[in-house]
Description:
Shape: elongated
Distance between the termini: 57 Å
CATH superfamily: MetI-like
Structural class: mainly alpha
Amino acid sequence: MHSMIFANLWTGWLEYIIHNQTEFWSLLSSHLRMVLIGEFAAILVAVPAGIVATRHKQLGWIVMNLGAVAQTIPPLAVIALSFTAIGLGQRPAILALFFYALLPILKNTAAGIRQVEDSQLEAGRGMGMTDLQRLRRIELPLASPVIFSGIRTSTVMSIGVAYLGAFIGAGGFGKWVILGQQRFETDILLAGAIPGAVLVILLDQAFARLESHMTPTNVSTDEGTGTQTA
């Protein structure tokens, strides 16, 4: 009996997706758009801010605390406050994703750069490199595993937060989750929830591959601790 129920649940959500393929691809597109735009904007802000945090102690303290504050604001509160000013749709959802993605990237950028050994920086100075050249040729390449770890973490979180966009007409898989709850139909709910879980795995693996291509061959990283060796 239980096996039959489980089998029906397993096939039911998949059948719902197959019967609603056009809407599925539309929801996938809107979900991805929100996540990737919010993530890209967070990278553009958080990586330079993380670099600044390693150069100026007091300014770094301010930057890190602002990032922590942005992380503690509930995404639903950001959406609720911002849609009154910029309207319904994806823009307030992307704004919430942007704020939510900042702190992991910011912290990991600062941590990665601070872990670069002084001897490596001194070697760069001995070669006549400027501060900018040392940053570009030594610090960022060596810090890249830790930075990418922060990007992967924030991306995974953003996929979950993007479900909230359905409350303000932003689309995404949250639309089916809400619809399934309203109709008490598990098939529809799972049709919205399971693709999001698959999306987490796919994007995480995509960033892992990108990280492996951009990480210097003489750098290894321990993902559990964020340490690296060269």
